[in-house]
Amino acid sequence: MSVDLSNVRNIGISAHIDSGKTTLTERILFYTDRIHAIHDVRGKDGVGAKMDSMELERERGITIQSAATFCNWKGKDINIIDTPGHVDFTIEVERALRVLDGAVLVLCSVGGVQSQSITVNRQMTRYKVPRIAFINKCDRTGANPERVTAQLREKLGLNAHMMQMPIGLENDLVGVVDLVTMKALYFDGDNGEVVREDEIPSALQERAKEKREELLEAVSMFSDELMEVMLEEGDIDPALIHAAVRKGTLSLELTPVFVGSAYKNKAVQPMLDGVNAYLPCPTDVENVALDLNNEEKEFAVSNDPDDPLIMLAFKLEDGRYGQLTYVRTYQGKLSKGDTVFNSRTGKKVKIGRLCRMHSDEMEDIEFCGSGDIVALFGVDCASGDTFSSGDISCSMSSMHIPEPVISLAIVPVDNKAQINMSKALNRFTKEDPTFKTFVDHETNETIISGMGELHLEVYVERMKREYNAEVQVGAPQVAYREAITARAEFNYTHKKQTGGSGQFGRVAGYMEPLEEGEYEFVDAIVGGAIPREFISSCDKGFHKSLVKGALCGSAVTGVRCVINDGAFHAVDSSDVAFQLAAIGAFKEGYMKAKPVIMEPIMKVSVEGPTEFQGSIMGSINQRRGMIIGTMEEGNYTVVEADVPLSEMFGYSTILRSLTQGKAEFTMEFSAFKQVPKMVNDELIKKYQSEKKNA
Amino acid sequence: MGKKDLVMNNPLRVLGLEKKVQENGAGMGLVMARAGLGKTAILVQIALDSMLWGDKVLHVSIGEGIDKTKAWYDDILALMTAEEKSESMQVTVTEIMQKRMIMTFKESNFSQAKLEERLDDLLQQNIYKPVCLIIDGYDFQAGTHAALQEFKEFMVRRGLKMIWFSAVTHRDDERKSAAGVPAPCHEVDDLFDMVMFIAPKDNAIDLKILKCVNCAVNAGTSLTLDPSTMLIQKA
Hints:
The complex is a heterodimer of chains A (694) and B (235). Chain A is an alpha+beta fold. Chain B has 235 residues and is an alpha/beta fold.
């Protein structure tokens, strides 16, 4: 295993569905000797590709589960990670993008830049991930890599330049011309494993010269030395070009474009050369951690193997032998048998087994160093946990987990499904902190909540497929909140005498809005008006009251309950009596405290051709949306708006029909805001009628 | 402190701009300074003042993103309302922000015609009808007298009351108009009803009123900016 970090590449391979990502990865594994036979995705041998993704991913065209694999190409260790693209999987996206240093954007030479390519590219830009592009499927009818390169410039705003040109296209694709070395490359052998260098066919020489000129002109912007040689019209050393391309790529100002056909075993190896030459090693990118001892202040990790260990668990997987935890080390080193600290729980963890993952297979290793991506065995943790050697207390990701904004009721169809559902929910909540579940005791339904419709749909589907847990699903509901806006006093006596020992407890005090946090209980009792043993009963009673507010039955948040007086009875007072007294006191004070209903507001970003800007803005306006702004990028416009989540159900269909399917949108949770009066009244009315009919 | 207090306590009142807008109809204003001295902060305060009066503002930002422009509004409004954190003030802030829309363009992609086309999208569907337009980042080096004159006519066509521009001055360019308006706007100053210039002075920053047609103050008057917040200070 290499220890020199300049020989490590942590890359993601991202693509639109059906652009051949799995086939490309299969070829990469074959050419790097990780597998010894090629199996096609839907091949006749029935084996399937090594990295074949979940059936669900194929159906929906999104990456849900990230997988990691490892290979070595010409002395460089390459860790390959899949990146989920949809914003509903915010946490997964953030963590996957966090652990990779560079990426290969795979495009279909016929389909070109499609909607998911736009989404993925935008996320990569946001996370400043240097990338190269691979235009695949050049053997297909209608292949046009030059058009796709132009789309990369126009639609994605990338400074994309072809490093190669194809020799023949569609059925005639036989190889590529390397525009740096000005050599033709052919791929011989049964599986294209033998790369043969030859002279450029005479028919292509003129065009190749033109394309090289274009490339050099673009690349020379990143190297004065190269520009000087070009001005002097001297021979250009390929190393000079490679250095300039690398500089441009790392600064995100250049996207080198490679072409080929993974399925026909053409030109995958030069793309791997591109990964080695142009994508960053761990020390080329700055990664930051949050210092938990210093108000989560950011600091750059050192990448130094001699510094204290910092590593991030970015993916959990339930394997045959227990929980597998994928980690990336950012500094320090880890050996089998070492003890590390989990920053979130503060617990010590002993590393029993350390593996390098290769899709669903693994190989045991003795140690790993800074920049590595490996898997730990049997470590109890959650996705996103940071491990350190204990000398420092830090986190690679913010401890803040966004509140779920949407919920669904699920009911298992039978007893077997009930047991399997519990197992599935247990695993999913551990893997994904934005996915939450609880049982509504009034309806006895299991409620799952998460970050969006797709988020929950995927988990319901995974329950069925992976755990055989068939469940009936209710309609998605917006997770409203209730909050008070004024201070209100309460003084409630709970008294019950029904024969035998009675119940007695009086609780007095006030409630007021709490600026930060969900709930706070303050005991301001003096002189023993409520005995010490019943103080916690009052707290419990208030806590129970928060589960369902009186306005629309949603959870109450942001309340401080202060008790400052009360009364007890030597015989009739009990834990239950004071809990009930507190519940009564809360009810008494709540309506006086001017409660309001809050709804989740989503930050919506719609991107589409400029000609549809008016229609897009109109559709947002109709949804109680507040347009923050518009941004023109070439022929594309991005409209950003704050829109209530309740208005966004079914928006994708509306948007598609408004824009001939040319616009796409993403949304993420922004804040909880008070609902307008009309909506407020409707929600109250609906809740009251539901209560009446219950 | 409510919306009314925010309006009345605003140091911009001294200029009497609201009277100008109400009584005299369309006009163009200009905020000038060297790079990095706070032109956007002044434009945002002018925009917020309009919004507090109930007018809708379209903030056109050339060369900057939506988030950065929005952050200016959030920060300045937070400073203006720092003393009041009540629920009602939160509601007021939300109401005020509903009167602002940001439109951003890349430098190479902006023209008056394109802006008018975009504005038409808003007007035709009754999505947003601005009264005040802020254009931050307009290239006065390239903008001709005719091009700016076109903005004036566009204002009338689209029912706008005020357009405010920002312009970058350069230390080594000493050209000035008769009214004292520095380059690059010295040859187009006749088109502007109001021109302000941000001038650093020792530990303070002055906001000089170079030109003000029908203003409540005379040309030559200076307001002071708080260098730490860039808020216009009361006299």
